[in-house]
From TrEMBL, chains A, B, C, D:
<dbReference type="GO" id="GO:0016829">
    <property type="term" value="F:lyase activity"/>
</dbReference>
<comment type="subunit">
    <text>Homotetramer.</text>
</comment>
<protein>
    <submittedName>
        <fullName>Low specificity L-threonine aldolase</fullName>
        <ecNumber>4.1.2.48</ecNumber>
    </submittedName>
</protein>
<dbReference type="InterPro" id="IPR001597">
    <property type="entry name" value="ArAA_b-elim_lyase/Thr_aldolase"/>
</dbReference>
<dbReference type="InterPro" id="IPR015421">
    <property type="entry name" value="PyrdxlP-dep_Trfase_major"/>
</dbReference>
<dbReference type="Pfam" id="PF01212">
    <property type="entry name" value="Beta_elim_lyase"/>
</dbReference>
<comment type="similarity">
    <text>Belongs to the threonine aldolase family.</text>
</comment>
<dbReference type="InterPro" id="IPR015424">
    <property type="entry name" value="PyrdxlP-dep_Trfase"/>
</dbReference>
<dbReference type="InterPro" id="IPR015422">
    <property type="entry name" value="PyrdxlP-dep_Trfase_small"/>
</dbReference>
<keyword id="KW-0456">Lyase</keyword>
<keyword id="KW-0663">Pyridoxal phosphate</keyword>
<feature type="domain" description="Aromatic amino acid beta-eliminating lyase/threonine aldolase">
    <location>
        <begin position="3"/>
        <end position="290"/>
    </location>
</feature>
Length: 346, 346, 346, 346
């Protein structure tokens, strides 16, 4: 009953198999390995973007911070949701990598609206050099509250950015979960909507630790490579990053894994709903924010269930007090585990 | 015949086995996994340092830059050899992570001498705020030219640093190769000599990508953790870093690997010497800087040997022109490969 | 009729006289000039803080950014109003000087309340290394909307900061204007309330360009000196900064200047009120945010009045449309000018 | 007998007069003052560069660090003499402002030679992303050892830079002293030779604290303005910077001041030579590095002469021991003072 995060589960068999297979003989270091050729081709094909440049790093924060740094000058603003991962969970890495750019937060409990983004952009960049310049827009897909922007919503947000001539970054730590939720193509969710650079997550959906950064504008390639090395994120034995990503993409393993995670989350949601639980946000991918009585939380904890309390109060309070929790289904969760979890609501 | 680098070979069987074994079920992320407990205990035991704090990152540059940043204020100088890895091969990562500290180079073709270090330190920090402050000393062991500081030499360098009350960092990307070359203990090569923090390399000697940063002063723990996350070097699925290091240390695999690499390098050196080659530096670990005729280089290249030319001229010139090369033996190189390589000298 | 800003007026006669007097012979550079001794003693006396360390820089942004950098680690949050000068008008200088600290904004149209500050702090620093650490609180006195925190309010804000063990910075670009508005002592407005470091403004209130940074904790001295030089804010011919500040403080010239500015602002407010203008914030020092009909704006502009429109619409719209303006009285404004300005309302 | 530095003397009468004249009424802040228009036109005329963009800052370190930051990416190398001011006397400001670029030092006791520069550049930028990229060349004119590059030498150094497509910065903290020493035009000493950006010093040669940064490529304007504000170097009451520079340039006051300083230095050199002193570098502008017996140093110190000892030993040693000193003549030094100084050699 492990619902704490999709960053705590195992790697996909296809990923691990490919890593093992890669562990033979010598391979050119620093991204010149042949597996990376294969990964590059695969990602270009997936994104229908034959000119795209593709790089691998090992953490989602590295992907985001490096991608943004290529678009955000130190005197610029990065526009994002106030609950974006880059704002809440990266310990100022975007500020560090950009040399001190400022995150300008769109005031929203979850998804940004085009109107909210427009209003926020409108207030910045109007004071000459005093207030700095407008910079990139960063969109988190799946959001940190488990919501998924529709393709229409992505188009609308990008249109706002483009109306100010601002580049757009997509933090796709849960890219696959969003994709299968929407049933659209990677191209529709990115460059066709107006996205310039994507953090294409692998770690949360079944890799050991690998994320791709995909630039649709090849002109950014050299700068990224220098920033990656300077940030100490260039792997010498790069084949082990390549192999993870190759195993992740091969045969659509990534889509299967996300489909499984999302379906299990839906199964969990259905069970919770039947048990009378409330939902803070309508679950759309593999994350569930739900509220139910304290005495059930207590029962689950006693039974060894692992998940993050989203509201305090577990330690004391009325047994019927409703407390929120975040439940995340990773690719490896089973319906048996979910059934066991739900059994405590009876 | 792959002698290009020890960062291009495969991982040790013990490392890969442990990584595979770790790939089951859920594990707490971000370094709270149980394998990290085991690694911490093992490294403390190896270093005879029960108070040491131990962290894992995935690249040697990350280990160096983060370790140094904990000791180098932005207005300070870091003293190192002019051929140190942090100076030559990290694309300004130390400057980036420290917020702009300056590397002050000791003018030497290879190892720093206590006199040279003293002279360099003496010229800095004498201009009040104008020239900034003296900061940490960084020693590369094995050096980038394949030399190994003796324990006496390390003691003498640290004594110079301590006479100015400066902390000492040891870049041990090839820590194991140095250790087996010296036959001393890890403690003698580090804290007993006066070293404050070590980059304890795993990648070059048989891991996929993992390095430990070992602080002998536990007071640095919190700062490192924050810097690591801010630098985007904190792994969520940290168990896969832990497992590498656990497999690396288990049963002395790391020492065996380094012993093998060093012995093979010695075997290669003996063969080269017999064939009349010269040596730029006396080989002491697993790196060989040697000079031999261009026509032999040509023959080796035609036969598919891979190594770095250290001097230009391969493309044209007199057949007997002596050209230098760097040959690195990793743990997986075989005497068969070396024999094959040497056969082209006949 | 110049009400654009208090940074566009001339220097006080006492300031200019002292600068002229200082222009003779040689003087030790970099702050070792004898006038600086006098300034240091004067500021310590004014603040009743014999241990305080005092430095001069030439711009308010330098004072703020350097003072904050001494208290904000790169992985920390700085708490301030969303309309603070450090947020809106310093082009990311605080982020630059701190190495990438994040400004966390208290959502308020003007002054922070203790409750608002508490709520904001409470949401940060709760995610371990992921979200970074809580850092200093910065209070702007006079606020950018012309309001003045009472001594009680300052005490309450500092108490919130201290309850989290956080240091407090006071951006006193208009320190004198606030002081004479409150009628309290500098000590009451700073260290007695719990402020750790003050940007003590001179420029806006009658200097050419000088601000003092006053640390009540002498332990910060060395770090500030190094940061100041590294930031290129250490003047060689420092006596000309010292002389400005000496002339500013001598005989209470600074208090007279602020009193004059505040009184003239009050005079302007009275006239505007009589003319039916509205006020966005109740004016408390030398800044007036007021709203009146577009046709009067037009008349004033035609007559050469200079001030910042706070709301757009001057170019077109109904003549009776109410549009906001910011009017600032500097020390040199005259009642004649104000009368002339008000005459256009008739 | 004040020969410590040309940063410790008074301001020129023409400078102070203009500052006083500027102190009336209101003026647009932040560089929009009418005097800046005049300064811009004057500097463009002086440099025969009608397209040049011109900015003012208050310190030489600010001019250098900001100018370089516009040309040096964080992952690049800045090439300069190992005794350059940016290396020795700016407390890592160039590293700070550039975001961590590395200074690569040309090993020379004073002036760089084209061969030395070429050799240094040649060793960098050859390691792909590992070693970072080659960046701007910075030339100090007058050097920190009092030497002046001839126009031919400047042309040759710039030609080396241009052969690598690298931009060139000239640190002209003593621009005027070099110019009158050479008898060439400002254009010949800068853009005609291949210089892209100049720190045009005012402070050392008779201003209170002002330096111009002159870009011959107008495309750099916007970036500089943003960097200047972000660095906290944009003055609100900018007219007082403009007025200094206007008074400095008016009627050739700057050239007269430098001529006087250089002539007095030559007079001092002649006297020293006659008295048997040695010279470490052949004096060419207003700085003199000379060696004479300790007992004369002692006599001078007892008589109140102020200058920097360049070699230790004043406190003890043989009376005849030769010790070096740095003697700097500023514009205000008089032959009487020099005669008095020289009288102690008798």
């Amino acid at each position: 009953m492990y619902f704490s995060s999709d960053n705590a589960g195992p790697a996909l068999p296809s990923v691990m198999a490919r890593v093992n297979a890669a562990n033979t003989g010598f391979a050119l270091p620093y991204g010149a390995d042949p597996i990376m050729e294969e990964v590059r081709a695969a990602i270009r094909a997936i994104f229908e973007a034959p000119e795209a440049v593709v790089y691998l790093v090992a953490t989602g924060t590295a992907a985001n911070a490096l991608a943004l740094a290529c678009y955000a000058q130190p005197w610029q603003m990065v526009f994002c949701s106030q609950v974006a991962h880059i704002q809440e969970d990266e310990c100022n890495a975007p500020e560090f990598y950009s040399g001190g750019a400022k995150l300008c937060l769109v005031d929203t409990p979850d998804k940004m609206t085009p109107e909210g983004l427009h209003a926020r952009i409108e207030t910045e960049g109007v004071r000459g050099v005093h207030g700095g310049e407008r910079g990139p827009v960063s969109i988190t897909q799946v959001t940190e509250r488990g919501s998924v922007y529709t393709v229409e919503e992505l188009n609308a947000l990008c249109a706002v950015a483009k109306s100010y001539d601002l580049p757009v970054h997509l933090d796709g730590a849960r890219f696959a979960n969003a994709l299968v939720a929407l049933g659209c193509t990677p191209a529709e969710m990115t460059w066709k909507a107006g996205v310039d650079v994507v953090s294409f997550g692998g770690t949360k959906n079944g890799c050991l630790g690998v994320e791709a950064v995909v630039f649709f504008d090849p002109a950014k390639a050299r700068e990224f490579e220098l920033r990656r090395k300077r940030g100490a994120h260039l792997f010498s034995k790069h084949r082990f990053l390549s192999a993870q990503m190759a195993g992740y993409l091969a045969g659509g393993a990534w889509l299967e894994a996300a489909k499984s995670a999302n379906e299990n989350a839906a199964y969990l949601v259905a069970g919770l709903r039947a048990a009378g639980a409330e939902f803070l946000h309508e679950p759309q991918a593999n994350m569930v924010f739900t509220r139910f009585p304290r005495h059930i939380h207590q029962r689950l904890h006693d039974a060894g269930a692992a998940y993050n309390m989203w509201e305090p109060g577990l330690e004391s309070g009325a047994p019927d007090a409703l407390l929120a929790a975040r439940l995340v289904c990773d690719w490896s969760i089973t319906t048996d585990q979910i059934d066991l979890f739900l059994s405590h609501f009876a």
